[in-house]
From TrEMBL:
Pathway: Porphyrin-containing compound metabolism; protoporphyrin-IX biosynthesis; coproporphyrinogen-III from 5-aminolevulinate: step 3/4
Top EC class for this record: lyase
Identification of the protein by name: Uroporphyrinogen-III synthase
Biological-process GO terms, alphabetical: protoporphyrinogen IX biosynthetic process; uroporphyrinogen III biosynthetic process
Domain Tetrapyrrole biosynthesis uroporphyrinogen III synthase: 20-240
Any GO MF annotation of the entry: uroporphyrinogen-III synthase activity
Family membership: Belongs to the uroporphyrinogen-III synthase family.
Catalysis: reaction(s): hydroxymethylbilane = uroporphyrinogen III + H2O
Function: Catalyzes cyclization of the linear tetrapyrrole, hydroxymethylbilane, to the macrocyclic uroporphyrinogen III.
Record key words, sorted: Lyase, Porphyrin biosynthesis
Matches recorded under PANTHER family: UROPORPHYRINOGEN-III SYNTHASE, CHLOROPLASTIC
CDD domains assigned: HemD
Amino acid sequence: MTLAGRRIVVTRTEEQAGSLVDGLRQRGATPVLVPSIRFEPPEDPTPLIEAARDLAEAAWVVFTSATGVLYGWAAIQQAWPDGLPDGVRVAAVGSGTADALRAVGAPVDFVPHEALGDVLVEELPLSKDDRVVLLRSHIGREALATGLDARGADVRDVPAYRTITEADPEAAAAALDPAPDAITFTSPSTVRGFLTALSNPARLTDVPLVAIGPVTAAALDPAGLRAAAVADPHTVSGLLDALDRLFS
């Protein structure tokens, strides 16, 4: 096993890290969990409640994460306990989000061929003036909303939850002493959260950093860091495969 005996840092929340941690252990690695983000309900739930209540006017409701499903689908079920209004379709940015939707009994009508917001923008079947409701983090990338707007959609960008980017400095320091074999990042927020815990991000220069996708990899740039590997496909399984390739 290529990862046998290697210490791999996982920056996901403890609640979301299970599949990655299990995959690492199955490969003989030692996962080191340093949660670098956490999620909270929106400070003002009114926009989410109103978006769910007015969903009959939408053509699409789009989810970009499993966390968005957790908070957003609960609001929809409260507004529409007997099921979605006729004509409303559901899109997921990738397979992980689609799985989260199916797990709560939600339909999945569209998943782009690649788990990237930019690909979803290009491929989502739209007619002019279709209303698209985005249920996502309050710090979601604006490119998704602006891209759909440019295609003629009537975009309602709704904060379904808040993403808090922070890690425990002591846990981060312990993970880096001794230096781990790799650090994994599953979103730009995990990058920012982990870096905020470090007094000197340059300490990561010689540590292989592995990103779940190109947007996450790009989040390393402001700190002068680069990803040693980027998962393809942009899933936990792809991330594990990228680690295998890195150390093979």
